[in-house]
Amino acid sequence: MIVLGGLDAVRGAVGRDLGTSDWVTVTAAQVGQYAQATGDGSPDGATVSPWLVLSLTNLFLPQIVEVRGIAAGVNYGTGEVRFLGEAQVGERLRGAASLIDATEVSGGVQTTIRITVEVEGIDEPVCVIDSLSRWLE
Predict the structure, then answer these.
(1) pLDDT, tens digit, 9 for 90 and up, residues 17-43
(2) In DSSP terms, which residues pair with 105 in a beta bridge?
(3) Domain at 124, CATH number
């Protein structure tokens, strides 16, 4: 995990790779619970919904970066999201993050952190999301 100490450190990290999360194995139980809660399941039960993959980025990001010395950090939403492949039940996924932009906003900084969701042993990512966060003083 990388720790950024305040907004100046956030601004200074633009263009940097922030690192990777832990590997997470997607289980059949998770896929089933997700399908039950959302109605979004694969016909064969073996393919992980891309929306479940996307939701895992909320698990990955806090494992990758922490911002200290601020009053609040807010998940502000997403920019572009690209689904590039499929993950299968039993595969291990992780997020790799890069800070690609920091823009001044009232009371703080809004960042765009690109999270690339990787499947262990596969070269191409399954999802790339531009995650928007606001870090407030």
Answers:
(1) 999 999 999 999 999 898 889 887 666
(2) 108
(3) 3.10.129.10
